[in-house]
Amino acid sequence: METQTPIQTQNPVIITPPPPEVPLLSKEGPSEVKPHHHITSWVALVIIATIAATTGYLLWAKSQEAWPFDFDGPWSEVKRIGSQSETAGWNICKNEAYGFEVKYPPNWKVWRVGAPEASVSSCEVGLRTAGFSPNLLELSLETIQQINVDVDSETVKTIEDYRAKHPEFFYFNEITRESTIDGQKLYWFGERLAITFYDGKMFRFSMIQNIDESTLNLFFSTFKFIKQTPKVNASNWNEYYYEDQFEIRYPTDFRFIDADDSGTYHNNFFPNDGIVMGTILFPDQKGTNLSSASISMARYDGYLTAEDCKLYRNVDKISKMTETETVEYEFYKATITGAAAGTKVTQYIYRLYNSNCFEISLDIRVGNIANYETGTVNEVDEDTILDQFKSILSTVGII
């Protein structure tokens, strides 16, 4: 019997065949595209699409005045959040006399600032200091909301100019930060006072008490400067100031006569308590029948309402002005004509009300041409005198 040899069981050996040889790619050969390259391409496309969408939105926002990056708000680092839709129902204050425009909430009003009693006004009358508030007569000091915009007519172009002219202001105040308003630098002195400069003037913003931050930002976001084109170049003219309340300029060949000079006839058409500040005399016009032309300035010594400011003395009766005319400011006006000793007298009375009542009047006296020897004089052009008066009137400034 044949003996069988037992077979020993062993773990099989697995022989892995060598991988096929991968040929090296030459520099000139085509590149192999691998899966992660497809992913990178999609990411790039998403990034490009995002940039395009963002750019499109920003261009739209700029055109719609909803640009969120170019206005540093007055509190903290608040950015401009205003848009046309948020201020669409707001009122517009356009103060062409002092070169600015701004919107304010529909339940707010424009107020004369500095009057013994606050009164509602409008920007069209040319307020140098305009207050914006819901109702100054009803609000208490604890609940009052008020933004004042004050324009200083003193020629100051930069913060350096202002520092040089008024160093005393900087003894007690220091700039705490800067932002911008309508492209101009806005210098902040704490959180309730800011100043900026435009077109040779200083604009001062003061905030009183409980101003809502959102309302304040929207107010500032709508503020625009108005570039003014003077009707007359009065930069070299003489100036007259009255107690920082009233100013007027006049050509250098005109002559100012103080109110104390009794040798000059000063006009004052207030029914009572009017005080003459002075008179400006026109140059002589030789060879014409002009007897005299002068501009008198008067003020009311006390408080008047806007309606009282319209009352004037017309010979022996009291009349009320019913007309208005805008010469930078909106003036009440009246005209009186008469004659005395062969001389025609025309008097143009203009009143300006801004807390106080100021009067600027033109007095023209013309002789009868028939009283002169034939050919010795010419008829004066009264329209030219009136135009000169309007040019001088356009330089009036009040606080």
- Overall shape: it is elongated
Distinct helical segment count:
5
CATH topology of the largest domain: Jelly Rolls
Helix content: 10-25%
Tell me the count of domains.
Answer: 2
Beta content? 35-45%
Query: What composes the largest sheet?
Result: 8 strands, antiparallel
- Any idea what the CATH architecture of the largest domain is? Sandwich
- Rg from Cα: 38 Å
Strand order of the largest sheet: 4-3-5-6-10-9-8-7
**What is the first-to-last residue Cα distance?**
140 Å
Order of helices and strands: HEEEEEEHHEEEEHEEEEEEEEEEEEHE
Mean of residue pLDDT values:
78
Q: Could you say which structural class the secondary elements and strand pairing correspond to?
A: alpha+beta
- Return residue spans where pLDDT drops below 50 for at least 5 consecutive residues: 1-36, 64-82
Report the count of strand segments: 23
